[in-house]
Amino acid sequence: MGIVKASDVVYEYIRRDEEGNVEGITTAVDKVSFEIAPGEFVAILGHNGSGKSTLAKHINAILNPTEGTVWVDGMDTGDEDRLWDIRQTAGMVFQNPDNQIIGQVVEEDVGFGPENIGIPTKQIWERVEESLRAVGMYEYRKHSPNRLSGGQKQRVSIAGVLAMHPKCIVLDEPTAMLDPSGRREVIRAVRGLNQVEGVTVILITHYMEEIIHADRVFVMDQGKIAMEGTPREIFSQVERLKELRLDVPQVTLLAYELKKRGVSLPDGILTPQELADALTGQKRGQS
Amino acid sequence: MSIILDHVNYTYGEGTPLETAALKDVCLQIPDGQFVGIIGHTGSGKSTLVQHLNGLLKATSGHIYFNGEDISDKEYDRKKLRSRVGLVFQYPEHQLFETDVFTDVCFGPKNLGLDRRETELRAYDALRKVGLPDSLFYQSPFDLSGGQKRRAAIAGVLAMKPEVLILDEPTAGLDPRGRDEILGQIKELQTTTGMTILLVSHSMEDVAEYVDRIIVMNQGSVMYDGVPREVFAHYRELESVGLAAPQVTYILHELRDRGLDVDAAATTIGEAADTVMRALGRSSGPGERQIRTNA
Amino acid sequence: MLRDITLGQYYQTDSVIHRLDPRVKLGGTLLFILSLFFFQRYPGYLAAALFLGIVIKLSHVPFRFMVRGMKAIVFLLILTVAFNLFLTPGKELVSFWKLTITWEGVKTAAAMAVRLTMLIIGSSIMTLTTTPNNLTDGMEKMMRPLRVFKVPVHEVAMMMSIALRFIPILLEETDKIMKAQIARGADFESGNLLKRAKAMVPLLVPLFVSAFRRANDLALAMEARCYRGGEGRTKMKPLVYQKRDRIAYLCILLYLAVSITVGRLVWMWI
Predict the structure, then answer these.
(1) Domain assignment of residue A83, given as a range
(2) Rg for chain A (alpha carbons), in Å?
(3) Residue A239 lies inside a defined structural domain of this protein
(4) CA-CA distance, B105 to C102, in Å (whole number)?
(5) Residues with Cβ within 8 Å of residue C189, at least 6 apart in sequence
(6) pLDDT tens digits, residue range B82-114?
(7) Architecture of the structural domain at B2-228
(8) What's the half-sphere exposure (Cβ side, CA atoms, 13 Å) at B74?
(9) For chain B, does the N or the C end have fewer beta carbons within 10 angstroms?
(10) Residue pair B198/B53 in contact by the 8 Å Cβ criterion
């Protein structure tokens, strides 16, 4: 079995008006099934309100499915007795960097998780050091989080999860509140985690350029998985992505535009180099 | 009539160990009706700059003239200035506080001392301008979705009928569709009302399509100031200060380096496609004509 | 601006005082404050000032930084001095309007000013050289015996340290909301008391909403990182007394002995 497996997961919540009367039921996640292999890098895309964050919170047992089951490393997330094992196996990084840092010194924050799971003092220090090094924040270990940039704070948050030695990390829009350089920093750290440390990564985002390096992409819409495939497969469907309220990288958009005007190009071009290769081939072919 | 900044300097925490120069000798002129993008990464001074324009921050030295009058003058009515230069802060939905959207939007005009009729007219007008449906007017602002909250908050500033509207990162945290909708609405506002608009952003790609002019801020100074295609020509320098030109710029430069004769200054997908088609030796009909008229 | 309040904010540097166990600093500060109220005469203050001077020197915190932090409470200091100056009965020195200054008043006021200044500097040295986390750790450990009486010592300490972490964030947020409302024509400065209180609504509502949202997010993040109270928790930085801590305790005791001798006994002989 994969590291994370979901089978027919439904999550409903009841809307109430001001007096507390039930107004209706919203289905945020609607019969979703998937399986993620250890070491995979999966991106979940979707516009705001598509259900992607709700789905993500199931993996960390913050939410429990109304119907269906989620397993993390073989453990049913509905199993109360395994709750802390599940949270230790699947770590979670949230959107707002300010609201998830508990410590007042970087290293103390990273040590918070290991302290909670009862790791002996000496090992906490080892874990803190290796985690901070893994995200490139070791020189900042004595700093106050308030003085860091958004990207740096998010890297500290990632280190805080990493120090618990999870097998899987779920990142819920970790870059939504950052500027472009902060976004690049965080994505670089996440890729390092996946490639160097071999941690399974589930990245939730609405920025297209962040998913190019994923092994697999799920696109969510109205609580369902609307598209699934490699980034290249996903990006080759420009029209469908636009329907789902998503962006397409400019290079893909340009290739799409050129194709519409009759230039023959392969599907799902992802980088400027690829486009240049394809176009210079054209030119040579013509002359 | 315009905004003129004459050698404006601003220092935070003057006389303390934390003293930092946030603005250094900024000189700018912003004519009426222009749509300006102010770009810079976090800490470049862009937010500090716009807070000067409506008198929230006072320049340490230098002068700012609004419609010919010095706003740091003792006689100058700064309260009035704030209604004429509307400033929408980052995450403006965090300032909503009333029990319903409509009353919240009324807050600004009411503070201007307008009568009830005029206040409500303006609030209604502002809410229509940001495209919020009538059915939401009497909802609690806290029950709206993220994008709707943001519109309501922008309406709260628009209701003061400013001549200049400044928006600090109005698209932060929104998804691509939400971002396009808000930016489209702002652009429409500018074309229909002729309002001067200053859009603060850290993303060139987002603003390139909408603005007439880009001002790049770096370490408290103006680094570049010009039409988008001029500014993006400096894409290497922009990169060295943590900014990036739109991806299109990179693609076109890559193509030109490989011997394809493209016009690397194109800033939108349409323009880029036109120039690539021409370089490939294929005419692309209407697009090409458009380029000529632009040039 | 709100951020200028530096009273008791941790000053990051490395010094012997910084490295001391927080319990030593807590206990030491308490004893120092008590000592200030032991003596009635100036030689005692001299001893206290000397001790304080040495500690300041050792702490590597610039004296200027400490004094700047005190600006916020100068008002309190003046008030206390004024009260003592005018309200102490005794031999009349000067009198004007309805106010009388007595010789005794001058003496008590001077003593009070010296005491208060030293008290404030003394306790701010503790907070300047100890991270708030360290401080709450120290309190948690010192108050551990109270658990017998069902006092939730760990929870209280955790709440305090979280509150301290969020104070600067909320201050910044207050500043931002205030500016945003001023940009919408809000007026926080003029009008009578009632009007001003009403003007605070547009500031307070968003601030509370934001604080609750942050609290909710933080609780979620803490649970996601397996926080479940103090039970079974280990410490990254457990408090263990070192040699320097024992020496520090000795120094404090020595100071106490000297200051009491100088402050009370020596004076009586003269």
Answers:
(1) 4-231
(2) 21
(3) no
(4) 61
(5) C196
(6) 889 999 999 999 999 999 999 999 999 999 999
(7) 3-Layer(aba) Sandwich (3.40)
(8) 0
(9) C
(10) yes
The DSSP bridge partners found for residue B196 are B164
Name which of B171, B165, B216, B236 is nearest B45 in CA terms.
Answer: B216
Helix (H, G, I), strand (E, B) or coil at B164: strand
Mean pLDDT of the B242-264 span: 86
Within chain B, residue ranges assigned H as helices are 46-53, 78-84, 101-111, 116-129, 146-158, 176-193, 204-208, 228-232, 235-240, 247-257, 269-279, 286-294
Structure tokens of B70? 């010095």
What letter represents residue B142's amino acid? Answer: F
The number of domains in chain A is: 1
Residue B247 with chain A: CB contacts under 8 Å: 249-251, 272
Among all chains, which residue has been given the structure tokens 């002995």? Answer: C257
- Which single residue is written with the structure tokens 């008006």? A17
Least confident of A277-286, B74-83, B149-158: A277-286
pLDDT band at B168 (very low <50, low <70, confident <90, very high): very high
Residue B174 has φ and ψ, to the nearest 5°, of: -90, 160
| Residue A8 maps to a domain | yes
**Buried-state track C178-191, b at ≥16 Cβ within 10 A, e below 16:** bbbbbbbbbeeeee
Category of A105 on φ-ψ map: left (φ > 0), alpha (ψ -120 to 50) or beta: beta
In a domain, residue A254? The reply is no
Complex ipTM > 0.85? yes
The answer to whether the beta carbons of residues C69 and C124 sit under 8 Å apart is yes
Collect all residues from A whose CB is shorter than 8 A from any CB in C: 60, 62, 84, 87-88, 91-92, 94, 96, 98-105, 107-108, 111-121, 124-125, 128, 142, 144-146, 160-161, 164
φ/ψ of C141, rounded to 5, equals: -70, -40
- Give the gap in angstroms from C-alpha C132 to the nearest C-alpha of chain A: 8
The model's pLDDT over A177-186, given as tens digits with 9 standing for 90+, comes to: 888 888 999 9
B168: which strand partners? B200
Written as six digits, the tokens of B53 are: 């324009």
Single pTM value for the model? 0.84
Residue A210 in any domain: the answer is: yes
For residue B37, give both structure tokens.
Answer: 């993008």
Whether residue A245 and residue B248 make contact (CB cut-off 8 A), yes or no, is no
CATH code (residue A173) = 3.40.50.300
Q: Where are the domains of chain B?
A: 2-228, 246-295
